[in-house]
Structures are given as structure tokens and as C-alpha cells.
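Continuing the batch. This is chain 6 of the set; chains 1 through 5 are on the previous pages. Same settings as before, nothing changed between runs. Recording input and output for traceability.
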Amino acid sequence: MELSEREYFAAVGTRPGMYVSRPSFLTLSAFVTGYGECAARHGAGALDGWREWLIARSGKQDSPSIWWALVLDIAFPNGWTDPSDLGPADEAHAVEALFELLDEFLARVNTA
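Output for chain 6:
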């Protein structure tokens, strides 16, 4: 059975420790980046438009250029400093936001 990107990322979000050694926000962001790069290299633009969608979703015209910073902007609208210094509760919230946003993005892409 082949999973769609949405189903695949739902599985990763549910059990991230099965996919990365330390399921932190930055490690999982690197995983998502690697997935997107591999997909693009093989002709499947699974995450095409992800950054642009995040910019639109954030509602900020002066958005950062790195997509994971956009996720943090959405997850922490009152601001954040260094993603490597997130406390346990903020780390969990950032990871949850990452996979919720991925799901929302992929749901829209698959119905467009």
C-alpha cells in the first residue's frame, strides 16, 4: 500500500521517533526538507508551494525566508528567539504545529 504525502506525514507526526533519532523541531524540519528535496529531485513536487503557502498563512509580508521560521512565527505569534533553545512544552507545541500545518497544506494541495 502506497501512502500519500499527507498520510506519510501524518504517520511521521504520530511517531516521529521512528523516523529521526531525536524528534526535535529542528531535526524534524531537516527531515521534511530532505523529503521535499528528494521528491523534487525525482520529479514529484510534494512540497511545491509550501513556503509560499506558509507566508500567506502567516499573513506577514515581511516573513523570514526559511520555511521552518515561518512555522515558528505561526506557532508562536508573540515571538520566539532560538529554536534550539525551546523548552519542552514549546518544543512539543512547535512539532505539533509543524505537522498540523503540513496536514493543512497537503489537504489543500490534494483538493486543488
